[in-house]
Design goal:
heterotrimer; A mainly beta (411); B alpha/beta (245); C mainly alpha (255); A: 411 residues; mainly beta; Pectate Lyase C-like; 16-stranded mixed sheet; 41 strands; elongated; disordered N terminus; C: 255 residues; mainly alpha; 12 helices; 86% helix; 0% strand
């Protein structure tokens, strides 16, 4: 059936009206028969699908491009995955994909990519899917401009929007995910970039790294997710110019870092989170040029973290700027802006002449007795904190910013 | 009918009895001068009548109304305190209007003669805070007379006033009496007491020793002035007269 | 009553201290907004000033004013007026005057520089505190015969509510930290009108932190319509009870 790829001039009607075959470009507009057509397609062919396809899982085992045409819908019907890709360099673009329902045994997905390279999943919309996009052992994949509409369900009936397992060099850009378990989940994913995605209202994390190294995420927006963004057991992750907003609740964080080394956290905005940033067992994290505003706790820095550097960050309107649970080792605070700083700048170099101690005694109290929060911002607590800042007795004296900025570094 | 009836009036402050079993009746058209040493209970007596102080025992009726929680009987009272204070930022005119508003319909025919007699016309648009003590006394006097009270209570009325104004004030009191008002005046000036009083009520230690016309006291002691007669009368303990009430 | 109220208010409108209070607040809040580029930070600072200053001034002003006014109050009591009406008129007048000062001094700048829910909350709680502490001041003033003593009691009341109460609360938390006292803490704090106002404002500014642990409790207690009603009722009681006590005391008092 293979036709030489001539520029769409010769058209042959092959099997009746349902199938129009171009030279290397196939058109499919029937609820069934897509799998059969794929079986006839050759490497490099393109199939344009119009209308709804309802023949269960679509199996793509060869390098083809599947393009969604007018009103293109692939409905998996709830049995298995909607689309399953097992060949290199497959492109699936422009579909509305639904019906990979919840399963306890299998990870049902809207599009599943297994053990192949260079998959491109782009501009699709997912609805009623358990997982939306599931990449397993898929290197060099691109997941771009997809929209995942999850729905509220029992937590154990929810799965991740974009899920990557054992992938290298992935590029995940411009996707929108909401109301899934995790918006984007990465496990054993290396050398990948996550750019300009927007995840919100997901049950757990907007973005979740596990055992993933040398990745970067940049310019993403995470809003109102159950627990924010988590980076765990990972190394050399770059986190740049992201926005973490309104992650509110008992164990909600803008950014949760657990057991990670050499993180670069630059130029992010943390706004209105219960905890802006939590560092638990982090080594050599560099936290620079971030804007932490209106969070409950801007930074919770656990004592098992070492060699953390905070520089040129803005702390403003937070209930607590920084708390810790023990003696901090090698933590450096340098030239940050603290809105609570009441020092002076006689030499007019833009840096206060007396150091600032961001740990407040009341924060320690609230750490021990959460209900003491009712006293926040009371005159008594203010006096207590001011006194403690002048004569540190309970808070670690070493944790101080020796050159606090007089003005926010970024306007 | 008696205008004021004091019926076994007693007032105790802690252990101290400021008034003990005071009984007296004051008629319309009479002036009663209330005198007595400092701390004798004059002020308490007046304050009881005005409803400012609540008696411990006994009662008061004014114009047949029992002095109590119902404030309406006070519509017939004009009171000039010893020291008057008014809202400092109001003008005299505003104060007069305020009082008229409070007094309501009874103020229909107001007596404003004192305003011109005391030379107050020019002061009407002045802030009260800018007035001297004497001027404030005049304002106080105007207010006391203004609503044609049938019980006029003047507490040391001439104390802060210049002699001319004091004279005019007392003239006004006499005028009110002639119009049928009962006038109660406390005073330390015996000449005043003798000249104005139809009767003199003498208080000591919270007890009302007597209420008598001044002439009777002079007659009983043979002295020529009341200031001389009073000590003589009291030392002779002419108590029999008291029972003549 | 309204006649007394009207003229008293007319007098208070030109009262130097009431005007000074408005100016003080105006300078403070405008200054804060002008010097502070970050409006949220200015609002936070301002709300702390308001929470401390408003009760103090309302208390002291009401007490001193009552004693300055006492001779005239006596004169009013000799008029055919019920004492209840006199006191009610005076309370309405003095609390209106101080609320007016507050609205001029804090309300206008706040709404000009940083309009929004925080601003409105600050404005309403400030007025609430003014009403509460005018009532408290009136009670203290009516109940005490001595001006200096009354002012002293006013100051002690203020220190107690703004500082000692919280200290006591913190002490309770530490002392009984091994017992389940958590459910008691929020209601206990809400018993103090200054704390209650602070929590109401905090719910706007520090919601993120409040949602940290006791979030659910807070949200349910204060955040909902019912919570707002509870808070408003609590403030109203703080206003009504001292006022009723003041009235009772005033009616029975020998003037």
């Amino acid at each position: 059936m293979r036709r030489a790829r001539r520029i769409g001039t010769l058209t042959l009607l092959v099997f009746g009206p349902a199938f129009t075959v171009f030279a290397g470009i196939w058109r499919h507009a029937s609820p069934t028969g897509l799998n059969a057509l794929i079986q006839r397609a050759n490497t490099g062919d393109t199939i344009v699908v119009e209308g709804t396809v309802t023949e269960g899982t679509i199996w793509i085992d060869r390098t083809i491009t599947l393009l969604g045409g007018r009103a293109a819908v692939i409905d998996g019907g709830g049995e298995g995955d909607a689309v399953s890709i097992t060949a290199d360099d497959v492109v699936v673009r422009g579909f509305s994909i639904r019906g990979a329902r919840h399963s306890n045994l299998d990870d049902m997905a809207g599009i599943k990519v297994n053990d192949c390279r260079g998959a491109v999943i782009a501009s699709n919309t997912f609805e009623q899917c358990f997982f939306a996009i599931y990449l397993s052992g898929a290197d060099d994949a691109t997941v771009q401009s997809n929209t995942v509409h999850g729905s509220v369900a029992e937590p154990d009936r929810m799965a991740n929007g974009i899920h990557l397992w054992k992938c290298a060099r992935a590029r995940i850009a411009g996707n929108r995910v909401h109301h899934q378990r995790d918006g984007i989940y990465l496990e054993f994913v290396t050398d990948s970039r996550i750019l300009g995605n927007h995840t919100w209202s997901n049950e757990r994390y907007g973005l979740h790294f596990m055992f993933s190294h040398r990745d970067s995420y940049e310019g993403n927006r995470f809003e109102g997710n159950g627990a924010g963004v988590a980076v765990m057991f990972s190394k050399e992750i770059e986190m740049i110019r992201n926005e973490f907003r309104s992650n509110l609740g008992g164990s909600a964080y803008g950014l949760l870092l657990k057991e990670i080394n050499d993180a670069h956290i630059h130029g992010n905005m943390f706004d209105g989170n219960t905890v802006g940033m939590l560092l638990d067992g982090c080594n050599r994290a560099s936290i620079v040029d971030n804007d932490l505003r209106g969070n409950g706790w801007a930074v919770k820095l656990f004592a098992n973290s070492t060699a953390t550097v905070f520089e040129r960050n803005t702390f403003s309107g937070n209930t607590f700027d920084m708390t810790t649970n023990g003696d901090l080792v090698l933590t450096t605070l340098r030239g940050n802006y603290w809105d609570r700083y009441r020092g002076y700048d006689l030499d007019r170099d833009g840096r206060g002449d007396v150091p600032y101690r961001p740990l407040s005694i009341f924060a320690l109290v609230a750490e021990r007795m959460p209900y003491a929060m009712v006293l926040a911002r009371s005159l008594m607590v203010n006096l207590l904190d001011q006194g403690e800042r002048i004569v540190p007795t309970f808070t670690p004296a070493a944790l101080l910013d020796g050159s606090p900025l007089m003005k926010p570094p970024h306007g | 009918m008696d205008r004021v009836v004091l019926d076994g009036l007693s007032k105790r402050y802690g252990r101290l009895w400021a008034l003990r079993d005071v009984r007296a009746r004051f008629a319309p058209g009479e002036t009663v001068m209330v005198i007595g040493p400092n701390g004798s209970g004059k002020s308490t007596l007046i304050r009881c009548m005005l409803g400012l102080v609540h008696p411990t025992e006994g009662g008061i009726s004014i114009n047949g109304c029992e002095v109590g929680r119902d404030p309406s009987y006070r519509a017939g009272i004009g009171y000039m305190p010893q020291f008057a204070e008014f809202p400092r930022e109001l003008t005299v005119e505003q104060l007069l209007r305020m009082m008229s508003d409070i007094r309501g319909s009874r103020s229909g025919a107001m007596d404003d003669r004192l305003i011109s007699q005391l030379g107050m016309d020019a002061l009407l648009d002045k802030r009260i805070g800018s007035l001297s003590g004497g001027m404030r006394q005049k304002v106080s006097a105007v207010l006391a007379f203004r609503y044609r009270p049938d019980l006029l209570v003047l507490d040391e009325p001439t104390a802060g006033l210049d002699p001319v104004s004091a004279g005019k004030l007392l003239d006004a009191a006499m005028r009110a009496k002639r119009d049928g008002a009962t006038v109660l005046i406390t005073s330390h000036i015996m000449e005043e007491v003798e000249r104005l009083g139809d009767r003199v009520a003498y208080l000591e230690d919270g007890r009302l020793r007597f209420v008598l016309p001044p002439e009777l006291i002079l007659e009983a002691t043979g002295e020529r002035t009341l200031s001389q007669a009073l000590p003589a009368y009291l030392s002779k303990k002419h108590r029999s007269h008291v029972e003549g009430l | 009553m309204w006649k007394v109220c009207k003229y008293t208010l007319l007098d208070l409108a030109r009262n130097r201290f009431a005007i000074g209070y408005a100016l003080l607040l105006l300078v403070t809040s405008s200054g804060l907004f002008m010097l502070e580029a970050d409006d949220t930070k200015a609002l936070i600072t301002l709300s702390q000033v308001v929470l401390a200053l408003t009760p103090l001034l309302a208390l002291v002003f009401t007490i001193i004013w009552h004693f300055n006014q006492l001779e005239f109050t006596v004169l009013l009591a000799v008029q055919p007026l019920r004492r209840e009406s006199i006191l009610r008129a005076q309370y309405i007048a003095v609390s209106t005057a101080l609320s007016g000062s507050f609205v001029l001094g804090v309300g206008l700048p706040v709404l000009a520089w940083a309009p929004g829910p925080v601003a409105w909350t600050l404005l309403l709680t400030g007025i609430g505190l003014t009403l509460v502490f005018c009532a408290l001041g009136l009670w203290i003033a009516v109940w005490q015969r001595d001006r200096a003593k009354a002012v002293g009691i006013g100051l002690v009341t203020w220190v107690g509510l703004v500082l000692l109460y919280d200290t006591l609360l913190l002490w309770i938390m530490f002392t009984f930290s091994d017992r389940p006292i958590e459910p008691l803490i929020v209601p206990l704090a809400a018993l103090n009108p200054i704390d209650l106002s602070r929590i109401i404002i905090m719910l706007r500014i520090d919601l993120a932190a409040l949602l940290g642990y006791t979030g659910a409790v807070y949200e349910r207690f204060f955040g909902s319509i019912g919570g707002a009603a509870v808070s408003a009722t609590a403030l109203a009681l703080w206003m009504a009870i001292p006022f009723l006590l003041a009235t009772r005391s005033f009616v029975r008092k020998d003037l």
